Amino acid sequence: MDPRREAARRALSLSDEALAAECREEFFVAGGPGGQHRNKAATGVRLLHRPTGLLVTATERRSQAQNRGAALERLRRRLGDLSHVPLERRPTRPTRGSRERRLAAKKRRGERKAMRRGNGE
User: Fold this and answer.
1) pTM (predicted TM-score)
2) What is the pLDDT of residues 42-68, one digit of tens each?
3) Cα–Cα distance measured from residue 32 to residue 43, given in angstroms and rounded to the nearest whole number
4) Using the 8-state DSSP alphabet, how is residue 64 labeled?
5) Is 80 exceeded by the pLDDT of residue 36?
6) Lowest-confidence range among 30-44, 67-81, 107-121?
7) Within-domain flag for 46
8) How far is the C-alpha of 58 from the C-alpha of 82, rounded, in Å?
9) Rounded to an integer, what distance in angstroms lies between the CA atom of residue 38 and that of residue 35?
């Protein structure tokens, strides 16, 4: 199994504090709407989860603590996506009934088109 997927699955079971401890945290000036407080203070949060290499940022709030919480939520969502293993799809054949219905519909459509031509073939 993929080591990143294993690390993501393990990280999902951790508490917020333990998950944050596995991350490199950076704070930066977010910019954008929100006035002087947001444009001068380093309220943007960037989290790099070292074991998986996932990087998430949160800049939408004026509070660094709220942005840290939003970044942790995003990281958990991304870890969940990474740890998900899609089921293998097996090709199936159409049933006899569905094949008959499809052919009957094609026949009706062809008859309707023939009637439009005017000669009723």
Assistant:
1) 0.69
2) 889 999 999 999 999 999 888 899 999
3) 11
4) H
5) no
6) 30-44
7) yes
8) 19
9) 6
Residue 30 lies in domain: 3-83
CA 21 vs CA 16, 28, 103, 119: distances in Å: 9, 19, 62, 79
Identify whether 114 is part of a domain: no
Could you tell me the two tokens for 45?
Answer: 């949060």
Q: What 8-state DSSP symbol labels residue 87?
A: P
Phi/psi at 46 (5° precision): -125, 125
CA 38 – CA 13 distance, rounded (Å):
33
Residue 59 placed within a domain: yes
Burial of 5 (0-12, 13-18, 19+ CB in 10 A): middle
Cα 22 versus chain centre, distance? 22
Alpha-carbon distance of 12 to 19, in angstroms, equals 8
Domain assignment present for 37:
yes
Q: Which of 18, 21, 39 is nearest to 29 (CA)?
A: 39
Number of domains in the chain: 1
CATH of the domain at 48: 3.30.160.20
**Which tens digit of pLDDT belongs to each residue from 10-24?**
999 999 999 999 999
